[in-house]
Amino acid sequence: MSEILTINNLNVTPQNDLNRFLVKNAAISLSSGKTTCIVGESGSGKSLTALSIMGLLSKQLQSTGRIVFQGQDITQLDNKALQKIRGAKIGMIFQEPMTSLNPVLTVGYQIGEALTAHMGLKGSGLKLRVESLLQQVGIAKDRADSYPDELSGGQRQRVMIAMSIACEPALLIADEPTTALDVTVQAQILQLLDELKTRMNMAMLFITHDFGVVADIADDVIVMFRGEIVETGTKKQVLENPQHPYTKALLACVPDAEGKNQLKPIDYAWLKDGLNDKRAAA
Amino acid sequence: MSLVNAQSLENAPVILQANHLFKTYTQSSGRFGFSSSQIKALDDVSLSLKAGSTLAVVGESGSGKSTLARCLLQLHPFDSGEVLFEGKDLAKLDTSALRAMRKNLQMVFQDPFASLNPRMRVGEIVGEGLLIHGLGSVSEQKNKVQQMLERVGLSADDALKYPHQFSGGQRQRIGIARALVLQPKVVVCDEPVSALDVSVQAQILLLLKELQREMQLSYIFISHDLRVVRHIADEMVVMHKGKIVEQGKVVDIYNEPKQAYTRQLLSAIPGRKAA
């Protein structure tokens, strides 16, 4: 289990307001064969962190810091060099399987694009590889000729997964990949991702707002709040013995299937005092 | 769970009842849509809501739960069946009687961004129902709107603002104020918290529970999130492909689901196997 990605001092700020930190001083390290979940509410900076790794931040945002992937600081790379890594060594899955696929191209063609671009596969070799990928994600191989609108939401997300693992990436970033799906489909997709991670010994960075999903899929957990990482630890540590007041508060407002949790909304004013106290004590 | 205890839930009168609802959509299908197929959105659906309680309608996308919500409120025509509110068949009422009845039956929508008119001030949105039903003088209406806004955790001054000035959770509060200002008896909540962050979700669920107790509301709570349902509902129906596959008390169904489909849904709740 080797360290594959290390992020240090990652800051993301708007270009026109360099003192407003959307992500502040983030440090993350990911290892092969492990799933790390970033949890947080909307606006906590979890997606921006993922986009920074891919170098896909909007032009209005600026990121600084070191992102070392397989020994190389990828923030220093130009676009061309980055393109060789994106889609090949780092795969990404997005939240909306409906909008991330091109409606006028067959899914087989879309899965094949990355294979042609990064590995130079063509013709029958390409066809075989695409069919094998579809089967790996649980779709019949003759669906390669289908268009995205002929597939269900779950199948489309499976196609997205096939695309993202096509070049056997060392790191897979999944940004809320199951949020738009029904629970039973979500359970299947989580299981599939977990199997693929183990089989291909990938590092997986999984972004979610759902602690239930964290409990199902994570090895390690990172909790983000207003751009800052407030807690990191193993799943067991964070879920069963949270240390930070925000993590505690966030866990306390999650409804559980047993109906035991009190659903206490987060008292942000109290939390702010709590954070300041903690800083003063440190 | 609402504050109706088990005993009084047994004895509570039925306030809204649906009997044998059928609704079929015709959908164009095939490439270019030249052929058509029939989709049974509601297939012999019957349910009853007890006064002061919460009945959850649970199911995956396409199961017919939102169609059911709209048919219950007569926002959508159905093919056959009847909906009784306090024993009266809503379909048999003429237009003006139905309109008068509507103030008792209100709805809170899923998407707080799409369901509020961006060109109207919050005060107008919340007060529109009072205006339509001609309830009270202008100043009384204004007072009611302000009180309602304060009750849902906003301020009276917010009446002059526009929806875009509010966050998702605040907009959902506006949607709730809009529904409740008419003092309805039944409120259909269609996925009211599924677009919200968990902490905001907890606030809105607590608010809905408080208001239910204060105003003796009965809720139909449409949701795909079985964890939320466990917290808010007394009884539930599970829908699958337009049919009700199981119904009963929430506690009973969670502890001992009888149907295979219900078991499948419950076992798919994230976080269960690890816990």
Could you walk me through the main structural features you see in this protein, from its secondary elements to its overall organization?
The complex is a heterodimer of chains A (282) and B (275). Chain A has 282 residues and is an alpha/beta fold. Helix content of chain A is 39%, strand content 23%. Chain A has ten helices and ten strands. Chain A has helices at residues 46-54, 79-85, 107-119, 123-136, 153-165, 183-200, 211-217, 235-240, 245-252, 268-281; strands at 3-14, 23-31, 35-39, 61-69, 72-73, 90-93, 171-175, 203-208, 220-225, 228-234. In chain A, helix 3 (107-119) packs across helix 4, helix 3 (107-119) runs parallel beside helix 5 and helix 5 runs parallel beside helix 6. The model of chain A has no long low-confidence stretch (mean pLDDT 90). Chain B starts with 5 loop residues before the first helix and ends in an 8-residue tail after the last helix. In chain B, the strands form two sheets. Chain B has a six-stranded mixed β-sheet with strand order 6-7-8-3-9-10, sandwiched between helices. Chain B has one domain (14-267): P-loop containing nucleotide triphosphate hydrolases (Rossmann fold, 3-Layer(aba) Sandwich). The model of chain B has no long low-confidence stretch (mean pLDDT 90). Classes of the chains: A alpha/beta (282), B alpha/beta (275). Chain A binds chain B through residues 41-42, 153, 182-187, 190, 209-216, 235, 249-250, 253-259, 261, 263-266, and chain B through 1, 60-61, 197-203, 205-206, 224-228, 230-231, 250-251, 254, 264-275.
